[in-house]
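Researcher: Good morning. I'm working through a list of sequences from a screen, and I'd like to move beyond sequence-only analysis. For each chain I'm collecting a predicted structure so we can compare shapes side by side. This is the next one on the list. No need for commentary yet; just the structure.
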Amino acid sequence: MEIKILGTGCSKCKTLEEITRKVVKDNGIDDNITKVEDIVEIMKFNIMTTPALVVNEGYNPVCFSSDFTRNEKQQVLDLLRLMGNTFEVPEEKL
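Model: Good morning. Structure tokens for this chain:
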């Protein structure tokens, strides 16, 4: 599973990264987490605001938040599990 955390480095972006890494680690998800801070690279995902969480290439961002509750963390985990078992689709084919 490929996970990208999009954000320029603000406190909300850092919080999203911390939460994502913790949820992934705590649940033993096999992953590859990348932090994307370059605004030009972020724009390639058609992102208007950050932070954003992208799971696997070819998918639209799945999360726009930094203040996760315990329930929201579980929702992200459920989504990551679902997305981790799907194939990648190029953006132009969506």
